[in-house]
Amino acid sequence: EAQVTQNPRYLITVTGKKLTVTCSQNMNHEYMSWYRQDPGLGLRQIYYSMNVEVTDKGDVPEGYKVSRKEKRNFPLILESPSPNQTSLYFCASSPGIGGNTEAFFGQGTRLTVV
Amino acid sequence: GEDVEQSLFLSVREGDSSVINCTYTDSSSTYLYWYKQEPGAGLQLLTYIFSNMDMKQDQRLTVLLNKKDKHLSLRIADTQTGDSAIYFCAEGSNDYKLSFGAGTTVTVRA
To answer: What distances in angstroms separate CA B50 from CA A36, B47, B95, B102, one per listed residue?
Structure first.
């Protein structure tokens, strides 16, 4: 089954404790991205990657890191989480951008930083 | 960055048509999308339209695009309870970025 898998689904952590949210896709997609979803703000792109070892900042990259060592994986790293990073995070992948290339989203990771 | 705006809430009676509106500011937008998010789930692509099209119909869904006014709408005919969800308008251009609106929460009442 074609899917994007994020782990964990729920996470509560304390300020300053490094964490990683994993994302994996099994569709051999080149393009992957991370979004955060906040009430009234919709989805805002954090980082994206057009291929292995190619990553770039989205609209709200501060406080986040990513890596793309393999095509299927695109982990999101919070080196020193803060309460303003409490949010719902989505990973997405697609074979490209635009037109009939559908973006596939993971189920989401709800992160709470206390 | 790009700005995409949509109203936050819509309540509609079962069987009626729903119309969700969206405006965007980036005149270089090439593709415009509608995504649906059901409770506890990720987003699923509902439909999309190229910027050189005025209208696209797909079963109960009709997308209208007014490029001059940068206005996009999604009409859902014969709205059902399963249509209750958050609907996101998004625009994309050739720089590999999708910009999303805040989402419209559609509530279908019996």
So the answer is: 26, 11, 16, 21
